[in-house]
Write a structure and sequence with these properties.
5 domains, Ribosomal Protein S8, Chain: A, domain 1, mainly alpha, 16 helices, about 500 residues, flat
Length: about 500
Amino acid sequence: MVEEVSIVATITAVLGALASYLFVKNDNKKQFKHYVTEAKAKASAIAYEAEHILQEAQIEIKSKEVELDKRFQDKVLEVEKQKTELLLELKSLEEKKQEFSLIKKELEKKVRDLESLEEEKRQEINKSISIMEKSSGMTQDEAKAYLLQQVEEQSQLEMAQLIRKYEKEARHEAKRKADYIISQAVTRYAGEFAGERLINIINLPSDEHKGRIIGKEGRNIKSLEQLLGVDIIVDETPGVIIVSNFNLYRRAIATRTIEILVEDGRIHPGRIEAVHKKIIDEFEQKILEDGENIVVELGLLPMDEELMRLLGRMRYRASYGQNALAHTLEVAKLAALMAAEMDGDQKLALRAGLLHDIGKALTQDVGGNHVDLGVEVCKRHNEHPTVINAIYAHHGHREPDSIESAAVCAADALSASRPGARRDVLENFVNRVKDIEEIALKNRGVRDAYAINAGREVRVFVDAGKINDAQTTVLSKKIAKEIEKKVQYPGEIKVTVIREKRDINYAK
């Protein structure tokens, strides 16, 4: 029994061991298959990566080949270009060589021609000497001496003519220079009078504003003088600049324009034009208001607006150094007083006196006789016949036909003849300057003309569409010649013709 149990146990143990061996063997076989599969996967990944690296290397090699090929082609083109340039340069040198060769031949020919001419000259001289020897019995030396004497006399004659020419020019230049020096001295001698009557002084906050007014490379002061038609003097006097012009209205506008620009601080050509336009509009409105105030103050309403505007404008007009508006008011009040004493119509005399010189407000712009202009404007607005007669009579064009008209004539004579009322020198100067401007303005293509620098210069602005650059030279000479013929003046007058073209567009 025991033995059977032992045998069963042994068999069982052997079977268990065998089963265990088979299990382990089977497990090892599965694990081995796993390792094999994993190894194959890794090998496949390595092969794929190697193939990818190989492709990238091939692409890079191809790119390098393309780049090297491009560099090679560029180098080939550069070499070809240099080769072409060298060939052209060689060709040019060959052409120049041929040209120099032709010039050399031509020069050699000219030298031969000159030598031939010299030989002909010597032969002609010898012939002349031989002829003179035969005809006059002179020897060769005597003939030569005679010819030299003739040449010397001819040379002396030419020298004398040149000397006379240069002496004449020297006398002319000396006279011109002397006239200029005298005119400068006379101008300076009259400085106080001219300064009182012909300039405005503008006070500046600081001398820094002088630089702003002048502007970069004189751009601002050039624009101011061109637009305003005045002479602007910036000297060493601290804190002031001077505006000079014979025209009171123009000078007043220029003064106010510069004052506004100085207060504002922005000074440049565009701003100057804008302020100038604004000031002109303001002045025109102020002129009308001044005329209305005068008429209201004197109790002469109703009166046409144009007449009131002309009255206001007379504030900026002078006659023989006497302010036209001040003279007009003086005449009106004197005429009213005299008419009242003679039992005349005081109001009518006052009105006639106020309008007797109304034409003077138009003479600077229109030109002509102030009497005719005054009569024309008063007739147009249906003024009283006595007013018309007073305008004619105060300069002797007609006889006074009423007490009021006679009172105006007497008042005009009293106002003009009182001591210190008028200065003939100033009136002559103003007329001369006005004549200079009118001579320039009547030429074709001229837009504006401004006499500046106390009448010693006139600046003429022409229409660029009608006058070209070549014609400006002719125009300046023409104006200068006409001024010489028609105007009496000391020294000289500089005529400057300015041609400027502007194209303006707007971005909308």
